[in-house]
Amino acid sequence: MGVFDDLVGQERAVETLRRAAASAAETLSGGRGAGMTHAWLFTGPAGSGKEEAARAFAAALFCPDRGCGHCDMCHQVAVGSHPDLEVVRPQGLSYGIKDTRQLILRAAGAPTLGRWRVVLFEDADRATEGASNALLKAIEEPPPRTVWLLCSPSPDDMMITIRSRCRVVTLVTPPVAAVAHMLVTRENVPPETAEFAARAAQGQVDRARRLALDAEARGRREAVLSIPASLAGVAECVTAAERLVKTAEEEAAAVTTALNESEIAELRKVYGEGSSGKGLNRGLIRGGAGALKELEDRQKSRATRTKRDVIDTALLDLVTFYRDVLAVQFGAPVELANDDRRADLESLARSATPEETLRRIDAIMLCRERLAANVNPQMAVEAMTLSLRWPVS
Amino acid sequence: MLLGMAANDPARVTLVVGDEELLADRAVGEVIAACRAADPGAEVHDLVGAKVEPGELTRLSSPSLFGGGAVVVIRSAQDLVKDVVTEVVSYAAHPAEDTVLVLAHAGGAKGKALADGVRKAGAHVVTVTKLTKPAERLAFIRTEMKRAGRSIGADAAAALLDAVGNDLRELAAACNQLAFDTPGKTIDEAAVARYHRGQAEVSGFTVADSAVEGRLGDALEQLRWALATGTAPVLLVSALAGGLRSLAKVGGAPRNLRGGQLASHLGMPPWKIDRTRKQLNGWGPEGIARALQAVAAADAQVKGGGADPAYALEHLIQTVVASRTGR
User: Where is the DNA polymerase III delta subunit-like C-terminal domain (chain B) (predicted)?
Assistant: First the structure.
C-alpha cells in the first residue's frame, strides 16, 4: 500500500524514488540526506506514467510517512489541492519565457506546510528555448526547500544544459501482462477486455485504460485500423485523409468548446459584464477586450494542439499495425498488437516486401514530423495515405 | 439666401450610406459642388465623426451674422458619440434654413441608430455599396467614360479591368487618363493595350488551374505575379492542394453516378465537377499521387522548412506539371 503502487512495472525507478524520499525526510530532521537532489527529470515513452511517478514522488516528499497513500498530504496531492505542489501543464503549443519567469518567482517561495515546495512541470519539452534558458539558474540553485520535477519523453528532448542539472529517472515501457493485471485489479475490467486493451495500447497505461473503459475510443481505433485496407486508389486515400482530419477536428471541438465558453464567461464576469451600480456600465471595463483577445488566442492554440494530439494517436495506432505486418513478414515470435486484424495483416504481409513495409512506417513518421512542423494536417495526412496505398494484387 | 434656393438645390440633409469610399466621396463632393453653385460664398465645414462634440452642429448651423449659407459634412458618421447622434437626428427632422448637412455613413451595424433616425426624419439617402461582380465594375468603367464624354467597347473595358484590377480609385484614374490621352470618341482595345497590359490580380486558384492544366509557362508567370502582388505562399500551396484533391476525387468516383448524385457523393458543386473532368485529361492516379506528395513537402518548405518559399512553389509547380502522364 502506498503512493508508488500505481506505477505499473517500474520497480527500478520506484526503488530510486523511495530511497530519495527517505533521504529527504532525513534532511528535514537535520541529517545529510545523501540520496536527495533538488532537480529531477522523469523520462520515459508516452504513457509509461512520468507524471504519475513525479506526482507520487511529490506525495512521498510531503507525507510524514513517505507516501502512505491515505494521509491528508497524499490525498491533497492526489486531488491536486496541496498548497506546496505547483503543477505546470502547458496547454498550448509551447510554453513561453513569460510564463516561465512567473513560475520561477512562485517556485522561490518557502513551503507553506514546512516540508518541501515542489514544482511539477509536465511536458517540459514544450518549453521554448528561451524558456529553458530562463529555467537554468532556478533549477541549478533553488532555495533549500524547493524541488523541481520535470517530465519529458526522452532526456534528449531537453536542452543539454537542463539535462546536466537534473537527476534522470528513466521509466520503462511496462509489460503487457502488468498493464492487464492493473486494469483487472484496479478498474474491474473483465480479463479479456483488459488483455486486449493492454496489448493494443502497447504499454501506454493511460491509453490502455481509455481503450478498456471507453467504447468510443475503441470505435475510433477500429476506424483508424480499417484505413490501411481501404486505401485502394488515389481517391480513397484522399477521402480517408479527409475523414481522419475531420474526426480529429470534431473531437478537438468536443473537448474544447464547452471549456472555451465557460472560460470566456468567467473572464467577462471578471471584467465587469452584467455588473450594476454607481459608476459601472453593463459592458466590459477598460482592458477587457484585450484580455478576451488574449484568452481567445490561447484557446485557439489549445484547440490546435488537441487536434494534433488526436491525429498523432491515430498515427501511432497505424504504426503498430505496420509493425505487426513486419513481424508477420519476418515470422518474428512476438506478440501482435493488432491480433484482432489478423486477416488484414497477413494479406498485406504477403503482398508486400519488408522493405515496402518499412517505407510505409517511414511515411507515417514523416507525417508526424510534418504535423509537428505545422504543415496543414490534411496535406500531411494525404501524403501519408498515398504512401500507404494498398498494393494492387 | 433663402430666395436663391431653387427646386433642384441639394436636400437640406443628405445621408450617404455605403463602404465604397470613392463613390461616397463623389456623392459628398456633388452636394458640396451644388451648394457652391447656388451660393458661391457658402462656408464648408468638413468634420470627422469621432471628433464632433455635442453642440458643434447646432453652432455651425445657426444663422451667421454676415448671412451666407453653410455646408456641414460629417465623414465616418458611424463613429459619432451617442449624444451627438441624438442631436443630429433631431436636427434632421427640423433642418436649418440655409445650412446643408451631409452625413457619410459606412453602412453596417455600427451607428445604425443614426442611419435609421436620419432616414426616418426624411433625409435624402444615397447608397454606395462596394462593387463585387465583374459586370458591375465593367458598368462602372462605361459610366466613367461617359462622364468624360467618351465611350468604350466591351472588349476594351474587359481588358482594362483585367489590367488595372478591382480598386475603383485606380480604375477611375485609369479611365480618366485614357480619356485624356486618347483622341477620338470611342476608346478601343488598341488604345487600352497601349497603356495597360497583363493581369493585375492573380489569385491562388488561377495559378492552380494553370498548373493542373499543364500550362507550365503560364503557371510560373502567374505565380510570380501572385507573389509580387502579395498573395501568401501558404494560400498558393493550399489552392494547388485543392485542385489536385478534386482531381483525385472526381477521377476515382464510381462510374455509375451522374449529375446530382455524383455531386452529393463527392461533396462538390456540379459546375466544379464538370471543370475538373476537363482538367483530368492527361492525369493518371500515379501522377496525382506524386503531385500530392510534392504539395505536402512544399507546405513544409513554405512554413519554414526551406530557405525560400518562392523557390519551393516554383519547384512544386514544375513537379505538378511534370506529373501529368503525357498526351
Answer: 205-317
Task: Give the ipTM.
Answer: 0.70
A378 touches chain B (CB under 8 A): yes
Is the CB of residue B292 less than 8 Å away from at least one CB of chain A? yes
Element (DSSP H or E) covering residue B232: none
pLDDT of residue A334: 82
Q: What is the CATH number of domain A234-387?
A: 1.20.272
Nearest to B296 among A233, A239, A375 (CB): A375
CB A370 within 8 A of CB B300: yes
DSSP for A288-333, please give it. Answer: HHHHHHHHHHHHHHHHHHHHHHHHHHHHHHHHHHHHHHHHHHHT--
Residue holding cell 458598368? B139
The 10s digit of each residue's pLDDT in B161-190 is 888 877 888 888 888 888 888 887 888 888
B-chain residues near A243 (CB < 8 A): none
Average pLDDT over residues A305-322: 88
B119, pLDDT greater than 80: yes
Q: Count Cβ neighbours within 10 Å for each residue of A185-217 and write b for 16 or more, e otherwise.
A: eeeebeeebbbbbbbbbbbbbebbbbbbeeeeb
Domain covering A3-170 assigned CATH 3.60.10.10 in the classification: no
Boundaries of every domain in chain A: 3-170, 176-213, 234-387
- Chain B residue with CA closest to A363: the answer is B293
Residue B284, chain A, CB below 8 Å: the answer is no
List the end-to-end C-alpha distance of chain A, in Å, as a whole number: 57
- The percentage of residues in chain B with a pLDDT greater than 90, rounded to a whole number, is 14
| Facing residue for B252 by CB, picked from A236, A375, A382 | A236
Residue corresponding to grid cell 457658402: B42
Using left for φ > 0, alpha for ψ between -120 and 50, and beta otherwise, residue A88 falls in: beta
Residue in chain A lying closest to B235 (CA): A376
Nearest to A243 by CA among B249, B186, B261: B249
Indicate the pTM of the whole model. 0.67
